[in-house]
Amino acid sequence: MFRKTVLPNGVRVLTEAMPAVRSASLGIWADIGSAAETSERRGVSHLVEHMLFKGTERRSAREIAETMDGVGGNLNAFTDKEATCYYAKVIDHHVPLALDVLSDMFLNSTFDRTELAKEQKVVLEEIRMYDDSPDEMIHDLFVRTMWSGSNLGEPTIGYAETVSALTREDLQRHMQSHYLPNAVILAAAGNVEHDHIVGLATSLFERFNGSCQVPISEEPALTPNQLIKHKDTEQAYVVLGTRGLSSRDERRYPLSVLDTVLGGGMSSRLFQEIREKRGLAYSVYTFQQSYRGAGLFGVSAGTAPASVQECLDVMLDQIALVADRGITDSELKLAKEHMKGSLTLSLESTASRMMRLGRSEFSLGRQLTTEEIEEKIDAVTRDDVHVLARELLAPGNLGLCVLGPLDEGSIRWQHNAAVA
Predict the structure, then answer these.
(1) What is the spatial order of strands in the sheet that 84-91 belongs to?
(2) Residue 49 catalytic?
(3) Which end of the chain is more exposed for a tag (fewer CB within 10 A), N or C?
C-alpha cells in the first residue's frame, strides 16, 4: 500500500492508503534537527518550529488555529535530534485544506519580530517546565552523560541563553540552509489517494526550489560515567544504561527482544523483580533511543531516595544475569508475540503510519512492510539476543544518572562520581 513519487523539484511524496478509515494524517518533514546545530545556535531548530505557527503572508497565527479548529482537525509539530515535522490530522475530505495550511506555514512564515520575542518567552517557559519535570530531566542528563561533548548529547530545546540570543535572521538562515526540496518529505496516511496528494503537492510546492547538503549522521563516542545531581524531589530518578544500536542496524530486532524481556511490560524481569517482588518503584522500564548513526539503551525507575541503592543493585543483577545466561525459550516466544502485537495495534493509527513513513524514508531510504518486520522478528534467536547482550551490557559500557535528594557518597558504583 506504500507509494512514492519524487516531484520535479526533489520533494518526496509518500502515501499509505487505509481505505477503511475516514481520517488522514499529513506531515511535512524537514531533514534537520538539533544534532546539526552549532553550540551558539542551540535550540534554533526547535524555535523555527514554534515560529511557523505564528503567522504567514496569508494567515495570522489566530487564523491558522481557527482554520484547523473549524474543521475539527489537529495541528501540531515536533523537533527531534535528526528531523522536524509539521503535521495535521483531519477528516478525509478536509485533506486539501490541511495541506494548504501546512504548506503555507512551511513556505510563507513571516517571522515577525514581535511574535519572535513572545515565542522566545514561551520556549523559556518550556525549558523551565522541563527543569520542573524530573522524569524528563533525568533522560536529558543521561544522554549528555553518555555522549558528552557531542551534538546528539545536547538538549533539542536548547538553553535559555542560546534561545534568548537567536535573531530573526538566524531563523531565516536556518530555513534557507536546510528547508529545501531535496531534504523535504510530504507523508500522508489514511483515506488518501496517492495521485490526488501528488497533484496537491505539485501545485502547493510549485515555486519551492533549490537544494542543500543534508546533515551527516553523528556517531558520538560513548562516554559512560556516573552523574549524581542533587534536586529536592520526593522520589529519586535512576537511569542505568549503555550503548545501543542505530536505527539502521539490523541487530535492532534482537535488541528489541532484549528490551522487551528486561523491561518492556508487566511480565518483564525488571518489572517483576523491582515492582512486583520488592515494591521499590511504581514505574520501571527499559528504553531505546535510536538515531541514524548511534543509539542508547537503558533502564529507568523512580524510587524512594532510601531505596536507590537496592533498586540499582537489582538492575545490575538482572543486567549481569541476562548478559551471562541470555534469555529462555519462553521469554523469546513471549517477546516476539508482544512485539508483533504492538506493531499491529500501532498500525490502526493514521498518525503512527504517517510517522513511520517519514522516519523510515530518512533513516532507511525505503519502507518496510508489516510482513517484512514480522519475518525479521520471527528470525531472532536466543543466541542473537545473548551475543548482543554480552556486547552491549559489558560493565565498562554502563553509565548511571541519579536525580534526587542524594549526596555523592550515597551510591556505590564502579565509576568515579561527577556531582552537580
Answers:
(1) 2-6, 12-17, 184-190, 23-30, 84-91, 74-79
(2) yes
(3) C
